[in-house]
Every structure is written in C-alpha cells, then in structure tokens.
Amino acid sequence: MGFDPSKMDVIDRRRIEAMVLGPMLRAFQVEFGVEKTNEIATGVITKLAREQGSEFAKGIGANGLEDYAANKDAWRRHGALEIDIVESDSKRYSFDVTRCKYAEMYNDLGFGDLGAIFSCTRDFEFVAGFNPELNLKRSQTIMQGATHCDFRYSAKPESE
Questions:
Q1: N or C: which end of the chain has fewer CB within 10 A?
Q2: In what order do the strands lie in the sheet containing 134-137?
Q3: Residue in 9, 26, 5, 14 with CA at minimum distance from that of residue 105
Q4: Helix, strand or coil, per DSSP, at residue 14
Q5: Where do the H-state alpha helices sit in the chain?
Q6: Phi, psi torsion values for 121, nearest 5 degrees
Q7: Taking a C-beta distance cutoff of 8 angstroms, is the pair 72, 126 a contact?
Q8: What are the phi and psi torsion angles at 146 (to 5°)?
Q9: How many CA atoms lie within 13 A of 41 on its CB side?
Q10: pLDDT digits (tens, 9 = 90+) for 37-77
Q11: Partners of 106 in the beta sheet?
Q12: For position 74, what pLDDT does the model report?
C-alpha cells in the first residue's frame, strides 16, 4: 500500500505543507503581491478542504453532525487543540478552542500571517463538503489574535 497522508495526524500534515507552501507563497507575494497571492492560495486550499470533507464522510460511511463530532480526533491528537465542549447533541456541536498548537507552529515557522489560510479557512469548506446540511459559525480565532476560537456547528433547519 502506498503513502496515505490521511493516516497522519493533521498537525503533522499541516507542518509539512507549511514548510513547502510558506516559502512558495512568500516568493509569489514578492512577485505578484500579497493580496493576489493570498486570494489564490485561499481559493485553492478551500477547494481542497471541500473535497477532503466529502472524502472524510465517505471514509467514515456517515455524514451526520454526531458522526462529524465523533471523528475529529486526528485534528486534536497529541494536544494539537485543547478544547472545551459547550454543547454536543444531534442538532448542535459547539466548542471553544483554548489552545491551538497549529497557530503556535505557524508562528514558530515564521508563517503566522499565513496560518489562517493554511488552516482556519478550511473549516467552513471542510464541513460543507462533509455535509452541506451542516452549518458552522465562528466569530474569532486564536490564529488571528483572539483568546479562543468559538466553533458552533449546527444542523440546518428543515426550512432552509
């Protein structure tokens, strides 16, 4: 069997990606400008996240909110995210991230300003690919300087 990056802890995958993409994006920022480079990178990464969300649902054989919540260990393994669960049932899955080693890692690598592109922007598209009937609201992230990230997942009401 060949190499399967989906078997790796997510923080390890993000480190490897950042070590390649960080210097590449820096070079593109110099050549084409920060705004255009970041816009293109965000578009590519969010498209990949949507596809990965769909593959994740296929891989676990389910796409309900409880299934999503029960299968997020790869993102938290080895203390990568420290969270406080606010609410968890079939209609809502809410938690606060109180420590984000992803943000710490990007800062250590010198790519703190790219961390939101590399990781945070994926969250919305990943869940949309996993199940378009699920919704994520988040008003702040540690990556962008807040004290915590507030993830609020919910099943979309039947009327939507």
A1: N
A2: 81-88, 92-100, 149-155, 134-137
A3: 14
A4: helix
A5: 10-32, 34-60, 65-70, 73-76, 101-109, 115, 122-130
A6: -65, -20
A7: no
A8: -75, 165
A9: 28
A10: 999 999 999 999 999 999 999 999 999 999 998 888 888 88
A11: none
A12: 81
- List the domains of the chain with CATH numbers: 9-155 (3.30.1380)
Which residue reads 């609410």 in tokens?
Answer: 87
| 25 φ, ψ (degrees, to nearest 5) | -65, -35
Q: Is-contact 97 81, C-beta < 8 A?
A: yes
Please report how many Cα atoms fall inside a 13 Å half-sphere around the Cα of residue 34, on the Cβ side: 2
Pairing of strands 134-137, 149-155: antiparallel
Q: Rounded to an integer, what distance in angstroms lies between the CA atom of residue 34 and that of residue 25?
A: 9
What's the rounded Cα separation, in Å, for the pair 122 and 46? 5
* Per-residue pLDDT reduced to its tens digit, 109-142: 999 999 999 999 999 999 999 999 999 999 999 9
Here the tokens at position 81 are 């995210």
- CB contact at 8 A, 143 and 154: no
